[in-house]
């Protein structure tokens, strides 16, 4: 979930950006969205941020693509917030730090331009600028997750242990994945007998670190 101001600043992004792009939420908020966008897609993203899909082009900023000169509008100059002209649905490529991508991930942005209140912006003459339109959108990857990723997610389960790692409980998913009943899991003493010998030291190290 993203909110991008008319200038191209990230006003808000949900923490799930880390799952898709590898960036931490706090690294992105209040930064230029154009730093994330593929250079070939910046002009299109800039166009989509403008209420009439026709931003004024400044040759210098168009070259860098990272700052957007902004014309401030009074609300009377803009279409009403529920206007279909303000709906947006487009695709652009974003930088991705995760290993399973080629450095960029194509994402579909779906949402609309809405007024962003409480920005308390000041004009060049020091007067208060009325609320401006910002892009409120949900971004989803064009490529669905691979079968392997879906299967891995389906194998996630939770167990409950004493501090010495003795199992005390296991959720229903764990019983299906492991094949033990809860009684079998919890009556065998140390949880280490369920761990492969090659992983024993790794597990013990994390066990101590956790305590």
Could you characterize what this model shows?
- This protein has 211 residues and is an alpha+beta fold.
- The chain has two domains: 2-141, PAS domain (Beta-Lactamase), CATH 3.30.450; 147-209, PAS domain (Beta-Lactamase).
- Helices cover 26% and strands 22% of the residues.
- It has eight helices and seven strands.
- Strand 6 and strand 7 (167-170) form a beta hairpin.
- The longest helix has 11 residues, at 200-210.
- The protein is elongated.
- Residues 59-63 have low confidence and may be disordered.
Compute the separation of the termini in Å: 36 Å
| Average residue-wise pLDDT | 84
Question: Radius of gyration, rounded?
Answer: 25 Å
Q: Could you tell me the CATH topology label of the largest domain.
A: Beta-Lactamase
CATH-scheme architecture of the largest domain: 2-Layer Sandwich
Q: Count helical runs.
A: 8
Keywords: DNA-binding, Nucleus, Receptor, Transcription, Transcription regulation
Subcellular location: Nucleus
Organism: Mustelus canis
Domain PAS: 1-56
